[in-house]
Specification:
six-stranded mixed beta sheet, two-stranded parallel sheet, 34% strand, alpha+beta, binds zinc ion
């Protein structure tokens, strides 16, 4: 925690967590990715996740990811229709920790976004969330809620 930006408490529903993790396993041996939608207040995500969108990784790589442009458009239109925004992105690490790689930090495009990383290194998947801003990494606590999320 750098003190320069406050990480929100990320609230995911159990079905959202399951969709994210399932998409990550589907993507093997490559990294998988997707987007998160939710409310933004004054340009900052509140941490509530209302929808998760599996997307294609156009890099088709086990080391990097790029969210498919059409998948991004479709997700952001859907979020806007509900008065919300894309508040983050998730991707998998197939053989490493659920922690941002130097490439993840370098490529972090939006300082407001929540960056979720799922590690498939061990038998059980590990999901963590971060803010990435100006080269700094701050972890967000993640809570799983049985009933949260609009459509989950
Ligand atoms: Zn990564």
């Amino acid at each position: 925690m750098t003190g320069r930006f406050a990480p929100p408490l990320v609230r995911l529903s159990v079905p959202q967590w399951q969709r994210i993790v399932a998409h990550c396993y589907h993507g093997l041996p490559d990294e998988a990715c997707g987007l998160l939608a939710g409310p933004m207040v004054a340009g900052e995500p509140t941490g509530l996740i209302t929808e998760v969108y599996p997307a294609r990784n156009t890099d088709a790589s086990a080391r990097t990811y790029t969210v498919d442009g059409k998948d991004f458009l479709r997700a952001s239109r859907d979020a806007e229709d509900r008065g919300e925004e894309i508040v983050g992105v998730w991707h998998s690490h197939t053989h490493t920790d659920p922690y941002p790689s130097p490439t993840d930090v370098e490529r972090a495009v939006d300082p407001a976004w929540i960056y979720v990383i799922v590690s498939l290194r061990d038998e059980a998947p590990m999901l963590r969330a971060f803010r990435l801003r100006a080269g700094a990494v701050a972890e967000c606590r993640v809570v799983l809620e049985a009933g949260a999320g609009r459509r989950a």
